[in-house]
Design goal:
The protein is an alpha/beta fold. Helix content is 43%, strand content 16%. β6 (276-280) and β7 form a beta hairpin. The chain is globular, with a radius of gyration of 27 Å. It comes from Volucribacter amazonae.
């Protein structure tokens, strides 16, 4: 009877310990952390079975309990080690705004050869927002034409909210100009529902690129290959002259600029479900969202050229040619590279202030074009 009581108490202890270990993993944002209590319970019942059929285990009830406890701890530490290893795999999302902050003497922004012909007054400065990939170019505009702002005012005037949120902020009247790729169907519908329309001023051209781990032997894909990969028709690298490995095809969140570009490439073919990851919220447990690209040897991801090659330091990826054409400035300018897109300074029609119009006009001037080119983009006429 005493041994049975010990075994019951041991089971309760193991489950409670596993539960709290599971909670700690959940709030740390680890995926599949629910396996811990399940593993502990399975371990317990397996041990209980052998316990009831083994005289030696009956004589060592306390050791059984200790063994279960240790197995839970080992499982916990092993899983954390694995997840930390996965998280250590390089991504293409490490962008530091500080490197491109206007008025910072050590920033990486493009600079004009001569002082800007436009100097905006501090009153009613245009409020800007845009895509992460375009932050260097509109931050360079600010650096050249705005009066020097203290950091807190700068962050109010110049946001970097990513494409989807930038469109939302423009529609809500929180900003005056956004620098983004063309709007998605979702944002066009939102504008229509609000009785608004976008003014799109094309200011530059950029390549949408696909990349893989540098050890991946694949160098080129066709447009149809891209469609087949992201629709789930092709799931292994081998038929594409690669190794016999399953393809990890990462995507971006819905209505982001790069995901919208991918949807255009798909030509109406439905995208397969994107890889997901669980991430923590402050107090609401976990939510599931599109997984960030991680540079596994069998992964494929996508972005815009400048972001993937200059804004993010990752020497472990290589760009793919598409239909035999590499994404470079020459092939972007002459439209030989198939995934070439304009990007825009976007306003709401009828809301443009005098300073907004002045800035837009200057962006299309020779000095505006100079900054666009020096940033690394191809200028549109």
């Amino acid at each position: 009877m005493i041994r049975i009581l010990f075994l019951i108490l041991g089971a309760i202890a193991v489950v409670v310990i596993a539960f709290f270990l599971w909670l700690s993993l959940v709030f740390a944002g680890y995926k599949f952390s629910g396996f811990l209590p399940i593993m502990a319970i399975i371990s317990y019942f397996a041990t209980y079975y052998f316990y009831t059929h083994s005289y030696q285990l009956k004589k060592n009830t306390f050791k059984v309990i200790i063994g279960l406890f240790v197995s839970s701890i080992v499982s916990y530490l092993g899983y954390i080690g694995y997840v930390n290893y996965v998280r250590a795999i390089p991504t293409v999302t490490e962008f530091s705004r500080h490197d491109y902050e206007p008025f910072n003497e050590n920033n990486k922004l493009a600079k004009l050869a001569q002082k800007s012909t436009l100097q905006l007054s501090k009153e009613n400065l245009p409020r800007l927002d845009g895509s992460t990939a375009l932050f260097p170019v509109y931050a360079a505009f600010v650096n050249a034409t705005y009066p020097k702002l203290v950091l807190i005012d700068l962050w109010r005037q110049v946001r970097q909210s990513k494409t989807g949120q930038a469109y939302n902020n423009l529609l809500e009247g929180e900003v005056d100009i956004i620098f983004v790729p063309a709007p998605s169907k979702h944002h066009l519908k939102q504008a229509q529902e609000k009785g608004l329309s976008f003014n799109l001023l094309p200011i530059g051209r950029e390549a949408f690129v696909f990349f893989v781990h540098k050890k991946n032997p694949v160098e080129n894909l066709s447009i149809q290959n891209i469609i087949d990969i992201y629709s789930g028709k092709i799931t292994n690298w081998q038929p594409l002259n690669g190794r016999n490995k399953k393809i990890r095809a990462f995507q971006r969140p819905e209505n982001s600029g790069s995901q919208t570009a991918l949807q255009r490439i798909m030509q109406g073919t439905e995208l397969m479900p994107a890889p997901k990851e669980d991430v923590p919220t402050n107090m609401g447990g976990i939510i599931s969202q599109v997984a960030h690209y991680r540079n596994y040897e069998n992964a494929i991801g996508f972005s815009f050229l400048l972001y993937a090659t200059e804004m993010v330091t990752n020497e472990q990826i290589k760009l793919l040619s598409i239909d035999g054409v590499m994404p470079n400035k020459t092939n972007i300018a002459n439209n030989h590279y198939p995934f070439t897109y304009d990007f825009y300074a976007v306003t709401i029609a009828g809301r443009e202030t005098e300073q907004v119009l002045a800035l837009l006009q200057w962006i299309k001037s020779e000095q505006g074009k100079e900054l666009i080119q020096k940033t690394g983009y191809v200028v549109t006429d």
